[in-house]
């Protein structure tokens, strides 16, 4: 099941049924009997704005399954919401290293890169999204916004910090 967290940020549960989600779970996570409950608790904490506490739970989940791209992506979302873009980038990078076809982690990585002023790298991340899913309208739009921002900087030497969207997705 997927959870909607106010911001608007989607937090994706790795404990959903395989028919609902395209990611497989490792045996380590499945053998942790309280993992789904911990995940649900983390979601509730995020919804209550208790990001540090939610982050602690996600990090505890990583101790049993450090190769869980979904948990890494959720950590990245929290770090992004906290304004810790470099840490968010690292978490999204872990997610994409683990699952190179996880388009939402690539998309989120692009947003963190934009916030770090690394527009060229953000375009590369979006290109990976579009290679995996050429019809991804949101990634196409984000790419156009970044290209426009880069052209504006080139023409005027100034940047518009609002020119790129910052809605994360899972």
Short characterization:
This protein is mainly alpha-helical and 170 residues long. It is 62% helix and 5% strand.
Describe this structure in words.
The protein has 8 helices and 2 strands, in the order ββαααααααα. With 170 residues, it is mainly alpha-helical. A two-stranded antiparallel sheet has the order 1-2. α7 (119-132) runs antiparallel to α8 (137-156). The two termini are 12 Å apart. Mean pLDDT is 80; it is low at 1-10 and 15-30.
What's the arrangement of secondary structure elements?
Layout (H helix, E strand, L loop, with lengths): L1 E4 L3 E4 L14 H4 L4 H13 L3 H14 L4 H13 L3 H14 L4 H13 L3 H14 L4 H20 L14
Antiparallel strand pairs: 1-2
Oligomeric assembly: single chain
Major β-sheet, in short?
2 strands, antiparallel
- Secondary-structure class: mainly alpha
The spatial strand order of the largest sheet comes to: 1-2
Key attributes of the depicted protein:
about 170 residues; mainly alpha; Serine Threonine Protein Phosphatase 5, Tetratricopeptide repeat; two-stranded antiparallel ribbon; 8 helices; 2 strands
């Amino acid at each position: 099941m997927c959870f909607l967290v106010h911001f608007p940020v989607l937090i994706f549960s790795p404990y959903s049924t395989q028919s609902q989600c395209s990611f497989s779970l490792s045996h380590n996570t499945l053998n942790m009997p309280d993992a789904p409950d911990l995940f649900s608790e983390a979601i509730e904490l995020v919804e209550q704005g208790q990001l540090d506490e939610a982050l602690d739970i996600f990090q505890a989940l990583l101790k049993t399954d450090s190769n869980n791209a979904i948990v890494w992506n959720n950590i990245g979302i929290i770090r992004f919401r906290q304004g810790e873009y470099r840490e968010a980038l690292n978490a999204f990078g872990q997610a994409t290293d683990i699952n190179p076809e996880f388009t939402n982690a690539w998309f989120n990585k692009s947003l963190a890169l934009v916030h770090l002023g690394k527009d060229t790298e953000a375009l590369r991340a979006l290109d990976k999204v579009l290679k995996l899913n050429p019809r991804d309208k949101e990634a196409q739009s984000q790419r156009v916004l970044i290209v426009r921002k880069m052209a504006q900087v080139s023409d005027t030497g100034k940047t518009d910090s609002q020119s790129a969207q910052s809605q994360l997705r899972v």
